[in-house]
Design the sequence.
């Protein structure tokens, strides 16, 4: 894929954050990596989504050094590029301040896998990374260490981060974590105990999602 096309994908997804209720203003950040060139398309720092243009997307290398663009990349660039250097299957990172997921960030509680949607798009409970200063290498490292081989992690007092083989997959994981968090909160507001999916069922649903969830042409 041409890096320009990847920039457009990042831009289009970034513009979706606000209508999907995952951010406001310039909150959060999105990136995608082109493995052939080693280039990363990433949202710029502090530019609100409602005025952002495709040409505002910044191109960096996998160490966060700007290759092309008139703006500085997101201040969380370290938290993105560590995945491109250390996990070769990861080609997209989505960081949001999703409000329901963020409730679990301030209670330091994992988001439990209670839905088949969560089992499909996540890899078990969403863990919480201990607090580190925003934008720091310490934050990038603790997030990377906490997520392990998974696809989603909560940042204490901060927000949600998901990764994927592409932007669509990473974004699906963001939506699944946020929707699960919302329903868990609603269930608890009713005084009800939530029931998590059996680990074996989670694994089966996840495998089915990876193997079969894609468009199929009508023969």
Sequence:
């Amino acid at each position: 894929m041409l890096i320009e096309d990847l920039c457009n994908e990042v831009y289009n997804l970034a513009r979706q954050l606000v209508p999907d209720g995952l951010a406001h203003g310039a909150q959060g950040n999105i990136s995608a990596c082109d493995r052939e060139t080693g280039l990363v398309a990433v949202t710029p720092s502090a530019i609100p989504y409602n005025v952002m243009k495709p040409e505002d997307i910044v191109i960096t290398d996998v160490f966060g050094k700007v290759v092309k663009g008139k703006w500085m990349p997101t201040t969380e660039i370290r938290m993105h590029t560590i995945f491109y250097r250390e996990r070769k299957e990861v080609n997209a990172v989505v960081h949001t301040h999703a409000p329901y997921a963020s409730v679990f960030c301030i209670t330091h509680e994992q988001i439990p896998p209670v839905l088949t949607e969560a089992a499909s798009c996540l890899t078990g409970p969403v863990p919480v990374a201990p607090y580190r200063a925003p934008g720091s290498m310490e934050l990038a490292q603790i997030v990377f260490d906490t997520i392990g081989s998974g696809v989603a992690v909560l940042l204490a007092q901060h927000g949600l981060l998901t990764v994927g083989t592409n932007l669509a997959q990473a974004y699906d994981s963001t939506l699944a974590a946020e929707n699960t968090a919302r329903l868990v909160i609603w269930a608890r507001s009713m005084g009800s105990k939530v029931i998590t999916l059996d680990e074996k069922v989670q694994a089966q649903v996840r495998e089915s999602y990876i193997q079969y969830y894609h468009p199929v042409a009508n023969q």
In short: The longest strand covers residues 29-34. The chain has a mean pLDDT of 94.
